Amino acid sequence: MGLIKVEGELIHDAAVFVAHGGYQIIFNTRDKGLAWVQVGDNIYSDDDNGNINSEKTVHKIFVEKDELDSAKEYTIRFARCIDRKPYFAESGETFEKTYSFKPMNKEDNINIYMICDSHSRTVEPAESGKYFGDDLDALILNGDIPNHSGSIEHLLSIYYITSKITEGRVPVIYARGNHDTRGRMAIGFADYVATDNGNLFYTFRIGSIWGVVLDCGEDKNDDHPEYGGMANFDTYRAAQTRFLKNIIKNKENEYAASDVKYKIAICHVRMDLYKDEYFTRHYKEWLKALNEIGINVMLNGHEHRRNYLPAGRDTEIGKIGYHTVLGGSFERRDLPDGNKIRNMHGTALTFNNNKIDVVFTDGTYQKLEEHIIDIDK
Ligand SMILES: [Fe+2]
Questions:
Q1: Which of 100, 127, 156 is the C-terminal boundary of a domain?
Q2: CA gap 44, 62 in Å, rounded
Q3: Angle in degrees, 0-180, between the axes of helices 233-249 and 277-293, rounded to the nearest 10
Q4: Helix/strand/coil for 186
Q5: What is the tens place of the pLDDT at every residue in 29-45?
Q6: Is the pLDDT of residue 85 over 70?
Q7: Which of 104, 256, 331, 364 is most buried, with most CB under 10 Å away?
Q8: Phi, psi (5° rounding) for residue 268?
Q9: In the prediction, which pLDDT does 6 show?
Q10: Taking CA 119 as the corner, what is the angle to CA 331 and CA 46, rounded to the nearest 5 degrees?
Q11: What CA–CA distance (Å, rounded) separates 325 from 227?
Q12: Rounded CA gap, 207 and 103, in Å?
């Protein structure tokens, strides 16, 4: 892989995304080129059926979970692609950077921060997400982190935030938001965050937490003029009904595993917002499955507000068996004295002693509101 020399620098630091089956290390570079990750003695590449990708600036590399958890560090490597000629292809010298990694195997006292709906803002969400400092165990980005997927700059806002908050050291979970589905680069959105066999819906484990990420897609009917005939989320929602039913069939390896203490769901849009049968026929099925799984808390965004809704609510799609947390919003206020307030509100979650402590916080780390969910009740 050539000599070690800085070339083709990173734009933002690497992030370790988590999805079913393990970690996916994603990093971005100014130039297109070849990417590798080394964990212990093993080297993984961003490749496609044996060919190392050379034409991308965002690189996604799959890594074994147990291996990275025990190595506690990883090294990313990158070489610029000069020309992928059919014969004697040329690449530049290799750049590398090593990150320490905090293994995610805690049973209790797990600290997770959630941000949603930052809409391409970067500085304020990155600041708010440092609430737990070195005690952070994972970061959840619950959709609409880019304002849309019309250009790479919007997508890079994801990595600005992950790099400042996690420094490549703790896992990131991404749930796609409806604005993420819009614009030319939305087609390849799955290349930019974690996936399970290409799907943006998947289950994951973080220590004793079992989780499921769902993707509502757009928030209006597929034939709405805003989408220009380019949406088919109705079929996509039906696929997730089958996915949820399969989780239940396979529960011993999923949420019913003996080391699972907490069960969470993450979905950008709150399913019970919808009244129209076009949506509710799917979301009734999703709710039935989530109630059977026994989800403790559902984490939502989309509504640009913070709120806690207790379990047991009667809604259009049925009785909601889990507690609901709406993750926060960007605060933008111009005061009469000329001062401007620009501040991201997010959610700090601590899983400890069969309780989930939900705290809404702001960019100065003030507690705005606190709710304690007792999962034994
Ligand atoms: Fe949204």
A1: 100
A2: 7
A3: 20
A4: helix
A5: 999 999 999 999 999 99
A6: yes
A7: 104
A8: -55, -50
A9: 44
A10: 140
A11: 29
A12: 9
Q: Does residue 4 lie in a domain region?
A: no
Neighbours of ion ligand 1 (CB under 5 A): 144, 177-178, 302
- Residue 49 vs residues 46, 53, 214, 342: alpha-carbon distances, Å: 10, 10, 28, 46
7 has pLDDT over 60: no
Domain end call among 72, 100, 128: 100
User: Model confidence over 311-358: pLDDT tens digits?
Assistant: 999 999 999 999 999 998 899 989 999 999 899 999 999 999 999 999
Question: What are residue 333's DSSP bridge partners?
Answer: 341
Domain count, the chain: 2
What distance in angstroms lies between residue 271's CA and the mean position of ligand 1's atoms?
12
Provide the whole-model pTM. 0.95
**Per-residue confidence at 4, pLDDT binned at 50, 70, 90?**
very low
Instruction: Answer whether 61's CB lies under 8 Å from 75's CB.
Output: no
Q: Which ranges in 220-375 belong to alpha helices (H)?
A: 233-249, 277-293
Contact indicator for 362, 338 with CB cutoff of 8 Å:
no
Gap between the Cα atoms of 45 and 62, Å rounded: 8
Taking the C-alpha atoms of residue 223 and residue 333, their distance in angstroms, rounded to an integer, is 36
* Token digits of residue 71: 């190595």
Verify that 302 and 346 share a domain, yes or no. Answer: yes
Is the pLDDT at 9 greater than 90? The verdict is no
Q: Give distance in angstroms: CA of 2 to centre of ligand 1.
A: 44
Centre of ligand 1 from the C-alpha of residue 326, in Å: 12
Q: What spacing in Å lies between the alpha carbon of 144 and ligand 1's midpoint?
A: 6
**189-210, pLDDT tens digit by residue?**
999 999 999 999 999 999 999 9
One domain, residues 134 and 75:
no
> What integer pLDDT is reported at residue 377 of this predicted model?
79
**pLDDT of the residue at 21:** 80
The tokens describing 16, both together, are: 């370790």
Distance 104 CA to ligand 1 centre (A): 29
- C-alpha span between 212 and 338 (Å, rounded): 44
Measured distance CA(190)–CA(184) in Å, rounded: 13
The one-letter code for the residue type at 112 is: I
Examine residue 7 and state whether it is found in any structural domain, yes or no: no
